[in-house]
Structures are given as C-alpha cells and as structure tokens.
Amino acid sequence: MIRFLLPFLTYLLFISESTLMQVFTPQHMDNETIIIPRFVVIMVCFIGMYITPMRGVLYGVAFGLLYDLIFTDLIGVYMFSMGLTAYITTFIARYFHGNIFVTLFVMIIGLSAFEFLVFGLYTLIDIANMNLEIFVYQRYLPTLLLNCVFVVLVYYPLRKWLINIAIDLEEK
Fold first, then answer.
1. What backbone phi and psi angles, to 5 degrees, belong to 90?
2. Which pLDDT tens digits describe the chain residue by residue (172 residues)?
C-alpha cells in the first residue's frame, strides 16, 4: 500500500497546484503579482531528503515530465529542473541536522534554484518575455512566500510519514 500511497499523494499535490493556480492568476487579483504553488517540487525535495536521494530524483524527473507534457510546449525543462532541484536539496540537507529551520532554509534554496533554473532555461531559448527584475518582484518573491508557508504547514506530518516510509522500505 505504501508503494502506491506516496505517488498518489504527490499526484494529488500536482492536481491541487493547477487548481490553486486558477485561483491565484492575475485576472483574479488587483495587482500584477503571479503566485505559483510548487507543492510537487517541495514534495520531491522532501522525498529525497527523508527517503533516498535517488527516489527524490526519480520522482522529480517523473513529475517534471508530467509538468512538461501537460503544461508546456517544450519537453525537458521541468523534467531536468525538478530532478536537479531534488538532487541539490538532498545534497545540501545531507550536511545539516534536520529541523524545521534548516529544512525551510534548504527548501528556500531548492525553490530558488528551481525557479531561476526554469526562468533561465526559458530565457535562453527565448520563450520567457520578462526581464529579471520583473521576474523577481512579480513572480519569484510571491511564489517563494506561498511555498515557504506550505513547507511550514506540512513539515511535521510529512517528515514523520516519510521517515516511517523509509524505515518500512529498509526492512523489506
């Protein structure tokens, strides 16, 4: 059952992202702020940190490909970015004692790396039509704030559940 519950929860987060995205679009707000929930990226980083790094990277590549297939016209940007973000956060978290503050800091680094990597790749291939200053103030900072609140809210239950999954997987 555990084998199916983790991908299912990650998929539910994927679905909830697109649902929340419809609520936080600029048409529903009075300002030009763009808030993008990155719950799957956070989940993938948690999986890499608390289960195994390889599992986090595999989930990152798989759900990144799902992002690319459903939301974008270019395959590979989210797949590469999410896998690399899982690897980076797992690598950084390996050297620190895991508490909520360290995890939040590592997630900020991971989310920042993810956002700037996607923005940089899209700018490189001339798809992004936004300069860096507008990106930082209208998209990156509000997105980072929303996702940091999400990390704080899910840290304790998700960490405990993923540690239990890691223990169960080691026993098998």
1. -65, -40
2. 667 899 999 999 999 988 877 766 655 566 778 888 999 999 999 999 999 999 999 999 999 999 999 988 889 999 999 999 999 999 999 888 778 999 999 999 999 999 999 999 999 998 888 899 999 998 999 999 999 999 999 999 999 999 999 998 888 6
Alpha helices by DSSP H, the chain: 2-23, 39-50, 53-71, 77-93, 100-124, 132-134, 141-171
Quick check: is 77 in a domain?
yes
Tokens describing residue 10: 């990650």
| Count of domains observed in the chain | 1
Do 126 and 119 touch, CB atoms closer than 8 A? no
What's the pTM value of the predicted model, to 2 decimals? 0.92
Instruction: Kindly state whether residue 55 falls inside one of the protein's structural domains.
Output: yes
End-to-end, the C-alpha distance of the chain in Å comes to 13
Domain residues for 122?
38-161
Supply the Cα-derived Rg of the chain in whole angstroms: 16
3-state secondary structure 14-51: HHHHHHHHHHCCHHHCCCCCCCCCCHHHHHHHHHHHHC
Number of Cβ within 10 Å of residue 13's Cβ equals 20
